[in-house]
Specification:
The structure holds two protein chains of two kinds. Chain A is of the alpha/beta class. Chain A contains twelve helices and 18 strands. Chain A folds into three domains: 6-155, Aconitase, domain 3, CATH 3.30.499; 159-256, Aconitase, domain 3, CATH 3.30.499.10; 266-402, Aconitase, domain 3, CATH 3.30.499. In chain A, helix 6 links the parallel strand 8 and strand 9 (194-198). Chain B has a single domain (3-135), classed as Alpha-Beta Barrel (Aconitase, domain 4), CATH 3.20.19.10. The chains are: A alpha/beta, B alpha/beta.
């Protein structure tokens, strides 16, 4: 028998017997989370599943207000109330308005750990693959069922191996690698599969950078993403798990990042990726640094490095929504926030609003946006007549400064 | 019963129901905006029992269950596609909306199709061609036959097995 992929290994450990790709398994989960975008329907389904239902383990469940925060109207305010009341009734973890983006909080507060199986009612849940957790995005009803049973059913996925080698040039970051991979595999390139990243290039990557890579597997249709944990530093004791050398992959890709140029996804799909050189001079109206992809401290610091002592171009607005309160506080303490604000940046609440078009930073018709987020589908940011380019925080900050897509000064 | 055909790939959840409309439990609000950035007249024209036909990777993007909920609330009785994005597929079955995969097809706007869920076939009345649906995993078939995951779990108390 051949060795196991990391997906097969994690699922096998949870099943108590060895599973292989293609098998159906009912697995116990280690945690579950939902947001104000998905929890309302999950709560409705949960209450229909049983009479006076209780969470299988309240300490393993988190609810987060992040998608439309603070509430823009009474309708959303009442959905937020529903989550607050449900959390109090069930005794689960609850993160109120402004605490941060769900995925950042799950990692920051160690609700998810290496080797876990975790369900999130949000498509970017695979982000936790950055620390070696098998984390899957689900809808509201699947989540409600898991809340009650502590289990989910899944088909053990085949895996695509992506080996990253080389060293990044200055001005190039994890986002450029992620976009390069999405462009190469395509928007449906890993549907139903796990993308397992490995390779010497990743060994000295921060957790924040690893999260960028795992986050964007959602843009390839993947069920999960896993980043090999070699070199990963975590503030608690844990046992590293790796794929077996003889594991079987559906496909293997190699990416040498030594000469990688900054990458940009053009409207209206995240897999329409080109090197920055093809898009230099494209005028922009709005720049956004935010989302579960790129709004962590290292992202804000890179932007501050580019903008410190300068000012964004006339006619451009730069919006920044830090990934969490902790990120915001750290950026306050080290002077990052001041540098960005003095350069003309406008700070928004830590949350998802502008990325998903639910609140704040809605673009006007025919405006062009450069954004550090993960999706640029038509209408994504709230206006179907706007054009969204996806790029790294460095490219976004540089474009805000120049008023157009411009080379990042190394 | 009308067939609505959008023969393109990668119709994402933002086009099925934009994020700005998803923060509600009011099904009529979801139905009112379903597919509006793809076809502004769809919500007005769709009627109970209608069939929706699309290309590949239908429902890619967000995990929002509001996408299949909006389609179902608007009256769509079955969605036919070459194949579905993973989360959309599970969500549709979980809420009892049949989602039928038939691989590459030649169904075009103006064609009329008939879906036979029992026989797992999709017949294009305009061209005369009949497609056999991809076999759904037994677990999903059992959930769909129960009317959705809530109904299944209420009845059986545990997930279906193969």
């Amino acid at each position: 028998m051949s060795g196991q992929t990391l997906s097969e290994k994690i699922i096998s450990q949870h099943c108590g017997y060895a599973v292989q790709a293609g098998e159906l398994a009912i697995v116990p989960i280690d945690g579950a989370m939902a947001t104000d975008a998905t929890a309302p329907f999950a709560i409705r389904a949960f209450r229909q599943l049983a009479d006076a239902p209780r969470l299988w383990d309240a300490q393993k469940v988190s609810l987060i207000l992040d998608h439309a925060t603070p509430a823009p109207n009474e309708r959303v305010a009442n959905l937020h109330r529903l989550l607050r009341d449900f959390s109090a009734e069930q005794g689960c973890h609850f993160y109120d308005v402004g605490e941060g983006i769900c995925h950042q909080l799950m990692v920051e507060f160690a609700h998810v750990k290496p080797g876990d199986i975790f369900l999130g009612a949000d498509s970017h849940t695979p982000t936790y693959g950055a620390l070696g957790a098998f984390a899957v995005g689900v809808g509201s009803t699947d989540l409600a069922a898991a809340w009650l049973t502590g289990k989910t059913w899944l088909k053990v996925p085949t895996s695509v191996k992506v080996e990253i080698t080389g060293t990044l040039s200055r001005g190039v970051s994890a986002k450029d690698v992620a976009l390069q991979v999405v462009g190469r595999l395509g928007i449906a390139g890993a549907t139903y599969e796990t993308v397992e990243f490995c390779g010497s290039a990743l060994h000295d990557w921060t957790l924040a950078s690893r999260m960028v890579l795992a986050n964007m597997v959602a843009e390839m249709g993947a069920k999960a993403g896993l980043v090999d944990v070699t070199g990963l530093q975590l503030p608690y004791a844990w046992t590293p798990l790796h794929a077996d050398p003889s594991a079987q992959y559906r496909a293997t890709h190699s990416v040498d990042i030594s000469h990688l140029r900054p990458q940009i996804a053009r409207p209206h799909t995240p897999d329409d990726v080109a090197p920055i050189d093809e898009l230099l001079g494209t005028p922009i109206h709005m720049a956004f640094i935010g989302s579960c992809t790129n709004a962590r401290l290292e992202d804000l610091q890179v932007a501050a490095q580019i903008l410190r002592g300068k000012h964004i171009a006339p006619g451009v607005r730069l919006l920044i929504a830090p990934a969490s309160r902790r990120v915001f506080n750290a950026a306050l303490l080290d002077g990052t926030i001041a540098a960005l604000s003095e350069a003309g940046a406008t700070f928004l609440v830590s949350g998802c609003g502008p990325c998903v078009g639910s609140l704040g930073g809605i673009p006007g018709d025919h405006e062009t946006i450069i954004s550090s987020t993960n999706r640029n589908f038509r209408g994504r940011m709230g206006n179907p007549h706007a054009h969204i380019y996806l790029a790294s925080p460095a490219v976004v900050a540089t474009a805000a400064l120049a008023g157009e897509i411009a080379n990042v000064e190394a | 019963m009308t067939t609505h055909v959008y023969p393109i790939d990668h119709i994402d959840t933002d086009r099925i129901i934009p994020g700005k409309y998803t923060k509600t439990l009011d099904l009529s609000q979801l139905a009112a905006h379903v597919l509006e950035d793809l076809d502004a007249d769809f919500a007005k024209n769709v009627q109970a029992g209608d069939v929706l036909v699309a290309g590949g990777n239908f429902g890619c993007g967000s995990s929002r269950e509001q996408a299949p909920i909006a389609l179902k609330a608007a009256g769509v009785s079955v969605v036919v596609a070459e194949y579905f994005a993973r989360i959309f597929f599970r969500n549709a079955i979980n809420i009892g909306l049949p989602a039928v995969e038939i691989g590459k097809h030649d169904i075009l706007p103006g064609h009329a199709v008939q879906v036979d869920l029992q026989a797992s076939t999709v017949k294009n009345h305009t061209t005369g061609r009949t497609y056999t649906a991809t076999k759904m995993p037994t677990v999903m078939l059992k959930i769909l036959q129960a009317g959705g995951l809530v109904a299944y779990l209420r009845e059986h108390g545990q997930y279906p097995t193969e």
